[in-house]
Amino acid sequence: MDERLHKHGRFFDVWSKFYRNNLFGQALRRVQRMAIEKLRVVPGQVVLDLGCGPGDGAAQLAAAGAIAIGLDYSEGMLTTAKREEQLAGRLLRGDAGRLPFRDGAFDKLVCTNSFHHYPDHFKALCEMRRVLKPGGLMVLVDPRRDHLFGWGAIDLVENAVFGLEEVRIFSVTQWCQLLGEAGFSDFRVEPGKVWSPVEWAEVFVEARA
After folding, report:
1. DSSP characters over 134-169
2. What is the pLDDT of residues 43-99, one digit of tens each?
3. Under 8 Å between Cβ of 112 and 35
4. Does residue 27 have a pLDDT over 90?
5. Who has greater pLDDT, 17 or 199?
6. Residues 6+ apart with CB under 8 A from 126
7. Is residue 106 within 8 Å of 132, Cβ to Cβ?
8. CA-CA distance, 149 to 34, in Å (whole number)?
9. Please, which residues bridge with residue 186 across strands?
10. Which of 37, 35, 38, 73 is nearest to 53 (CA)?
11. Residues with Cβ within 8 Å of residue 183, at least 6 apart in sequence
12. Residue 183: which region, alpha, beta or left (left: phi > 0; alpha: psi -120 to 50)?
C-alpha cells in the first residue's frame, strides 16, 4: 500500500481522538451537515460518505432513510464510526484512488474536508464519478486555495508543521477545470458564506456524473 496513505492515515488516527471535542471539529461537522442537506437524499437511495471519519455524516444519512456506506483509510476514525449502530456492516477501510465498488454503485456521494489528503487528487475524482450512477449527485466540500485561511491551514499547518507535503487544495477556477476533465456533466462550484469564517474558506461543489 502507498506509504503516503499510511502517513495520512496516522494523522487522522490521532485526529480521531480529538475530532468531536474541539471548536474546529464542531465547525467541520456543521459544514458536513450542510453538505448532506445539499444532497437532498430520498429514502432508499444508496449514498457513499467518502472520508467518513467518525461516522457522523453516514449516521445522518442513515437517519434520513438512505443506505449509507462509509469509507475511510484511518483505522482510528473507523473505530469511532463503528460505535454507530445503524452503520453496522456498512463501513469499509479503503483508498479513495481505488474505490472498492462497481461502476454506478451509488445514487449520491458526499465528501467533506478530506479530499485534499488524497495522494492522487485527479484519480480520486475520476473514481468518485465512476461509482456514481449516470446523473448521480456528488457534493464535496474542501478548503480553497483562493482564500488566505484555507491556504494557511493546509500549506502552512498540515504541510509545513505536520509534514503532509502531499496535501493540495484548489481554487474555484481550478475546481471547475478538474471537474470538467474528470467527466462530470454538470457542476456548480461556489465559495461558502462570507459571514462564516470556516465556510468562507471552503469551496462547495455540486456535480453530476
Report:
1. EEEEEEEEEEBTTSHHHHIIIIIIIIIIT--TT---
2. 999 999 999 989 999 999 999 999 999 999 988 889 999 999 999 999 999 999 999
3. yes
4. no
5. 199
6. 182, 183
7. yes
8. 20
9. 208
10. 73
11. 126, 129, 209
12. left
Say if strands 106-112 and 132-143 run parallel, antiparallel, or are unpaired.
parallel
Res 122 pLDDT > 90? yes
Enumerate residues 6+ apart whose C-beta is below 8 A from 37: none
Domains delineated in the chain = 3-208 (3.40.50.150)
* pTM metric for this prediction: 0.87
Tens of pLDDT, residue by residue over 152-167, are 566 665 555 455 567 7
As a whole number, mean pLDDT of residues 135-163 equals 72
Q: Which residues contact 58 (CB under 8 A, 6 or more apart)?
A: 49, 52, 68, 69, 70, 81, 84, 87, 90, 91
Burial 154-184 (b: 16+ CB within 10 A, else e): bbeebbeeeebebbbbbbbebbbebbeebeb
117: cell is: 489528503
Confidence category of residue 15, pLDDT binned at 50, 70, 90: low
Identify the burial level of 123 via C-beta atoms within 10 angstroms of its C-beta, where 0-12 means exposed, 13-18 middle and 19 or more buried: middle
